Amino acid sequence: DVTEIEEEEAQAKQEEQIMKEQELSNLLHEKRYLKALGLAISLDRPHTVLTVVKAILREPEGRRHLEENIVRLRKDQKEAVLAFLVTWNTNSRHCHEAQAVVETLLKHEAPDTLLQFSGIKSAVESLLPYT
């Protein structure tokens, strides 16, 4: 009977998820945005990533801080953010944050590098009607 083992694994995953949520909350409170972005991306939480982006933009010099943080993300994290911002851009309440991230990516990534992102073609096609 593996039921007990499966229940223990499920509980361990749930506890790990709760710990990561608490860590994310602490990072936001401490204004450690790069780590918060990385953790939210790894948790695959687009709304949480949006919350982090909004928190960065509320800071004095927010655009500059956003650029500094986005530029320091790994390629796979930038790809995830690109996928998230396609959805944000379709909502008028979040489009300004999406456009700020798009601007940062376009400004700091070479066109050849952007073309290597997975899903770039569909992302651009989805961004065009709303941009």
Commentary on this structure:
78% of the residues lie in helices and 0% in strands. The chain is an all-alpha fold. It has one domain (2-128). The radius of gyration is 17 Å and the shape is globular. The chain starts with a helix and ends with a helix. The mean pLDDT is 91.
Largest sheet: none
Task: Report the uncertain regions.
Answer: none
In whole angstroms, how far apart are the ends? Answer: 55 Å
User: So how many helices?
Assistant: 8
Average pLDDT = 91
Number of strands: 0
State Rg. 17 Å
Residue fraction in strands: under 5%
- Elements, N to C (H/E): HHHHHHHH
Which structural class is indicated by helix and strand composition?
A: mainly alpha
| Envelope shape | globular
Secondary structure: helix percent = over 70%
Summarize the entry for a quick read.
The chain is mainly alpha-helical. Helix content is 78%, strand content 0%. The mean pLDDT is 91.
Main attributes?
WD repeat, mainly alpha, 131 residues, repeat, 8 helices, TBL3 protein, Utp13_C, nucleus, 0% strand
Topology:
Layout: H1 3-29, H2 33-42, H3 46-58, H4 62-71, H5 75-89, H6 95-108, H7 111-115, H8 120-127
